[in-house]
Design brief:
The protein has 21 helices and ten strands. With 469 residues, the protein is α+β, with helices and mostly antiparallel strands. The strands form three sheets. It has a four-stranded mixed beta sheet with strand order 2-1-4-5, with no helix packed on it. A four-stranded antiparallel beta sheet has the order 6-7-3-8, with helices on both faces. Strand 9 and strand 10 form a beta hairpin. 35% of the residues are buried.
Length: 469
């Protein structure tokens, strides 16, 4: 691939041959014949050879927006080792050449770099595929052009990875459904969705709308470019690599088929990415709904349902997007206990006495985390819970300072600066208890107000400012 022009050994993946395992005819992808193999209805591909969309994708203003988006997202480099800082200079030098390759159908994306992110369950990982920064620009350019086209087709009950929609909108729709009597849910789990997407089915769905076969060809090349994991190349005949700018849009296009089928059958549902809940008025109705929708999802869309994780329950018993629900004059939100434990784990990390951060760095990181976490969970009723968490977090902060004030003379100096009576200064400074127990004594000096004045942001105080309940 010309994108990697001899930058380093690792960037010659497609030129070295040893890792290039995708057949040439697959790489070139003859649009009309391929679509005839994939689709059952030839009417779908009428006008496939119409041109224009690819040129729109490669317009300078669209590519510039794509570059700025990739740059703002930062992120690690792909298999070629090029990072975002090198991207602009490379595109200026090779941009016209890359565009010409794409227009002629000769462009071959590099494989993605496999990264495994630990899941909440021990021993389980989420597999991400990180494209090269150049491929990210072109994927982003495709997504920018296709999103407005497919937005017109997407369901009102779909909320993930869409403009002006988010998790809060999905949760409020859940609340609305339950308050209207649809309190039993089919909590559906699609097993390893991104890894199990049938590429042929996705190409068929794309071909119904996209009539420029060169765009279909380019998207198909991105899907089966392959993965490099621990230096080994793996083919990707199935699935969509999760991690690139194009994968969220492709997932919505695929799952929109399920959305339309659910709407055709008259079901109420809420979908955020691949997390879908179908709402029913009774348990029996929910059981019947699950039984009837399974053949469509597995037989028509070729996706897998995880039977162990798919459940039927009253909405008060399910976890959705980190929230759980309870009834109190209507459906209300709480933070799920597993989410609370995860949050406490992050606070433990941020207030670890052994992480060697400066106090200024720790304050900034705690502020960032508190704002982000509370803004996401601001729909939940959690004041009492946050008061307890704040008390625990402040104790850990006091323990940090007590460890830093290791010597007695340092403690005396620091405590005097807090305007404490002299007898209190000497009593605290000469405390011989361990760090954790001494932190209880230190609350006389490092009061809640002092800690707030230092810049530490309280979960409770920020929650009371932004809450929406």
């Amino acid at each position: 691939m010309n994108v990697t022009d001899g930058k380093s050994k690792d960037r010659q993946l497609h030129n070295e041959g040893r890792l290039q395992m995708v057949p040439a005819e697959q790489g070139e992808y003859a649009e009309a014949s391929a679509c005839q193999r994939i689709t059952e209805n030839t009417d779908i591909i009428t006008g496939l050879q119409e041109t224009g969309l690819l040129e729109e994708i490669l317009r300078n203003d669209n590519l510039n927006r794509a570059y700025l988006k990739v740059k703002s997202n930062k992120g690690k480099g792909g298999v070629d080792g090029m990072d975002v800082g090198e991207l602009l200079a490379y595109l200026r030098e090779h941009g016209k050449e890359l565009n010409q390759q794409i227009l002629e159908g000769k462009y071959k994306p590099n494989p993605v770099r496999r990264v495994e992110i630990p899941k909440a369950e021990k021993g389980k990982f989420r597999k991400l595929g990180i494209p090269t920064v150049v491929d990210r620009v072109y994927q982003q350019a495709i997504a920018q052009m296709l999103s407005p086209i497919f937005e017109e087709q997407f369901s009102e009950n779909s909320f993930g990875f869409r403009p002006n929609r988010g998790a809060h909108d999905a949760l409020k729709q859940c609340q609305k459904n339950a308050n209207e009597g649809y309190a039993y849910v089919v909590d559906m789990d699609l097993e390893k969705f991104f890894d199990n997407v049938c590429q042929s089915k996705l190409i068929e769905v794309l071909s119904r709308t996209i009539k420029d076969g060169r765009v279909i060809s380019l998207i198909h090349k991105y899907m089966n470019a392959g993965v490099v994991s621990e230096g080994q190349f793996e083919k990707t005949d199935v699935g969509v690599p999760q991690g690139g700018p194009l994968s969220p849009l492709l997932s919505n296009i695929m799952l929109n088929e399920m959305d339309k089928e659910l709407e055709r059958r008259g079901h109420r549902f809420v979908r955020y990415a691949d997390d879908c809940m179908i709402f029913c008025k009774s348990r029996k109705s929910a059981e019947r709904t699950l039984k009837n929708i399974l053949p469509f999802i597995e037989g028509k869309l070729f996706l897998k349902i995880n039977r162990e994780k798919t459940s039927i329950a009253h909405i008060s018993k399910v976890k959705y997007l980190g929230y759980t629900f309870y009834n109190c004059k209507g459906l209300r939100f709480r933070v799920h206990p597993k989410t609370v434990e995860k949050m406490k784990g992050k606070i433990r990390e941020l207030t670890d006495r052994n992480n060697a951060w400066s106090n200024e760095t720790r304050i900034v990181r705690i502020q960032q985390y508190v704002r982000g976490w509370v803004n996401y969970f601001k729909l939940a009723d959690m004041k009492k819970q946050l008061l307890e968490t704040d008390e625990w977090m402040r104790h850990r902060i006091r323990a940090i300072y007590w460890k830093q004030w290791k010597k007695v003379r340092t403690r005396i100096k620091k405590l005097r600066s807090l305007n404490l009576p002299e007898w209190v200064v000497f009593e605290l400074a000469n405390c011989r208890k361990g760090i954790w127990r001494s932190a209880f004594v230190l609350n006389q000096a490092l009061t809640n107000q002092v800690i707030a004045n230092l810049g530490y942001l309280s979960l409770t105080s920020y929650y009371l400012k932004v809450r929406e309940n």
